[in-house]
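Researcher: Structure for this, please.
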Amino acid sequence: MIKELNHVGLRMLDLDKGLHLYRDTLGGQVILNALSLDGKGHIIYVQMGNTVIELILTRDADAQGYAHLAFLLKGKDLDAMYEKLLGQGYAFSMAPKLAGTGNGRLAFFDNGAGLTLELVERTEDIRRTPFATEAFQKLDHITVCVPADRQADTARIFVQELGFVRENDRRFRLGDDVIEMEDMVPGRGTLDNLVFHIKDAAATEALLRQNGYAPERQGNELALTGPAGEKLVFVQE
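Model: Predicted structure, token format:
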């Protein structure tokens, strides 16, 4: 079974720009900065309160943006989940293998509509205790967009395979981790946005602007496009 929605993967050309936003501006904590074992890859994990953003270096401008949602297993069940999902017809872009950093194993599969999901076994879970900063309180939810003909099956993956509780037709919860599913429409990606709770919209807006960003504000809600083209939304509690 799944312990948590462990992290969100983002591919970007410039990891320093990712650090400037997530660490230097918003106050996230770097918990891993490493090259892959083969020396070809570079990833940085930035914990953002109750979740982790994985910054993944890419040299392909077209590959920038959301890469995957990663789910941490409670135990050593990766092979069993792989065989089960493979038998159900899901396409794996990566069969179970050693993680690039050497910390456990992982596998990647698709919901059948372009949403990439990662299953992870860890030798060591490096996530820290959740925290808040002046810029954000916590990640409220992640929005995914799914075509109408794949929504029922995607909901089944979240509930039956990943262990989420279905709060309504579009909202799924596992502890503090929440995924909301919306319709796929032109101009929206499969991973559409990250929604953070904030204490003070004016203060967060001022902080972002002081650090060179230009968020759009509507009432107590801010919207910002990150360095990889990812969409962040900040909502005052």
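Researcher: Any notable elements?
Model: The mean pLDDT is 95. Residues 148-161 form the longest helix (14 residues).
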